[in-house]
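REVIEWER CHECKLIST
Item 1: Sequence provided? yes
Item 2: Single chain? yes
Item 3: Sequence as submitted:
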Amino acid sequence: SSLLLLGHFHTCALSSRSGVTRGGPVRCFGHDDKGQSNAPPGIFVHVSSGHHHSCAISSADRTVSCWGDIASPPEGSFHQVSSGGSHT
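Item 4: Structure as written out by the authors:
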């Protein structure tokens, strides 16, 4: 993987793809009691993990997808995302 992020009891990684220099699927593992290790399908360019959630930026339209214990992702187009304990 090319990027590894640690949450409270889960970890997410942005996986590399053969022959592609940027972006890949997100793989998460660890505790999943709030859905924090259940990453959505897709190709992402950045990922960040918080206490019981994670968020990633889609390579297609630069929007943020979040999963786990979070009310809703921020709206808009982004280059980077950062997750805190219970916020993004």
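Item 5: Key structural point noted by reviewer: The chain has a mean pLDDT of 81.
Item 6: Recommendation: ____
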